[in-house]
Amino acid sequence: MAHHGIRPCVISRQLRVSHGCVSKILCRYQETGSIRPGAIGGSKPRQVATPDVEKRIEEYKRENPGMFSWEIRDKLLKDGVCDRSTVPSVSSISRVLRARFGKKDDEDDCDKKDEDGEKKTKHSIDGILGDKCIESDSICTSSQLFGWVEIEGDPNVGQR
């Protein structure tokens, strides 16, 4: 309608919307060439740490693999690499470490494979019990596992 020279106030009356709504849509069309709404919320990815700071974070982690992100942040401040206004947050340091080194340290044990090539996760029964049930390559029974005593022929003994 605006292309045909109809004024925004007339458009707003015909469409039964506010004049501000029509003005906003026309302004967006002039700026972007589209009347589609922009993104709501979210944030643009930003470079929190400079390349020099990222290199220093990597150095600290290589020197001391057990160092936590908050310790790295403190060390950046202590060594004068950053000041209070430019030091990256703990989550930003963790993000840099994940990008450079992959998994976190505590995730490394989580997806080990056993002799058969099957995954053995920490939260599985094998991962929780570890090698407690393996005695000279024999399979652990529930009585060995829980310390129950079973007497042959008596199904009531050893039950809890």
From TrEMBL:
UniProt xrefs under SMART domains: PAX
Name under which the protein is recorded: Paired domain-containing protein
Methyltransferase found in the keyword field: no
Ranges for domain Paired: 1-100
PROSITE patterns reported for this sequence: PAIRED_1 (PS00034), PAIRED_2 (PS51057)
A single cellular component GO annotation: nucleus
Compartments (UniProt record): Nucleus
Gene Ontology molecular function: any one: DNA-binding transcription factor activity, RNA polymerase II-specific
Top-level taxon: Eukaryota
